[in-house]
Specification:
Two copies of one chain form a homodimer.
Chain A: H1 3-10, H2 14-23, E1 30-31, E2 37-38, H3 41-56, H4 61-72, H5 78-90, H6 100-109, H7 118-132, H8 139-161, H9 166-199
Antiparallel strand pairs in A: 1-2
Helix pairs in contact in A: 4-5, 4-9, 5-9, 8-9
């Protein structure tokens, strides 16, 4: 199909598709003349993914470029998959040292994690910011939040392991992580109502 | 203290403090002359809160205005607290109809929630967007995510109930919800590593 038909199929305007092409998040079509190209079903899927990441996931275009790059070239072994997916999600962040409280929390939970990893540093910054704003985030509350998020992560890992191919497993981790974040935050708010009613 | 001292104490530049004053998220100081005003400790706290919400929580200034308004005038009964906090967080969103799958999920979980509420509609949109992007979000995965977020919400509700005053309870719900979101998302990523290692 031509670019105008790709626009019609996906509901994304031609000028946005040209922007995606320039930014390298949508692969070029098969050139049919000096000024036109042919697009296929894989382009329809890719446009839908990019639009979802940008519009609903709030992912910046540079991060989308890393994500689609990882989807196009997943690591051959499932063993390396999560590491590659996490590097993709974390970007260039070198990972600052995690505060002692966070390191202690992870050890206390018995989690085998890389304490120098970018998300441990991010966790430290987020805890500090929440406390600075006056959130009553006690160490006990933090531990219970961590246990609940472990249950979330177990579902994440099972969905990735159940994927039929490395490509699908990579998609499950990367897209599943970014796009399920808003689902979890909406569930939290709805669950607050339910938990509050249960106590009343 | 003068505005320059407030800037020094909080590390927020004077021009940003003036912007906060203009936007109504920082109350005016006590006027000491036609051009200068005196600020107190309550202004230091407020500036720290506003900066944390804007910089770390990514909250738009219009939403910050609603949040500080709710903190300044919490409802007299704890019964109304969560409703007021949620209206504050949801803003003007009229709340579209939730998709049948989400309504069925909530009923299946036995959650007493307002099915027309803004967060149920948000949940429906987030589920749809995640699936459109290719996230493998099965109904069973969604149910398990919901159960994990109920455990999170129970901690949220306990922290609010344990607050010594309606003001503190309001702060626990509103600030705790917005500022703990990034903590939960970082925990999810760190937990993925731990859950994946546990399975290897």
């Amino acid at each position: 199909m031509r670019i105008s038909q790709l626009a019609e199929r996906t509901g994304v305007p031609v000028h946005t598709l040209k922007y995606y092409l320039r930014e390298g998040v949508l692969p070029a079509g098969r050139a049919t003349s000096r000024t036109s190209a042919e697009y296929g079903e894989e382009h329809v899927d890719r446009v839908r993914l990019v639009r979802a990441l940008v519009e609903h996931g709030g992912v910046p275009v540079a991060a989308v470029r890393r994500i689609v790059g990882a989807l196009d070239a997943p690591p051959p072994s499932r063993h390396e998959l999560l590491g590659t997916a996490h590097s993709t999600l974390a970007g260039e962040d070198p990972g600052a040292a995690a505060p002692a409280e966070v390191v202690e929390l992870l050890r206390g939970l018995g989690w085998c994690t890389w304490e120098q990893g970018p998300f441990v540093a991010e966790l430290g910054r987020a805890v500090e910011a929440a406390r600075a704003a006056g959130a009553p985030l006690t160490p006990e509350a933090l531990r219970r939040y961590a246990e609940a998020m472990f249950a979330v992560a177990e579902v994440d890992v099972e969905l990735a392991l159940g994927a039929p191919s490395p490509e699908e497993a990579m998609r499950a981790v990367v897209v599943g992580t970014v796009m399920v974040d808003p689902v979890l935050l909406a569930l939290r708010r709805v669950a607050q109502e339910a938990a509050s009613t249960a106590r009343a």
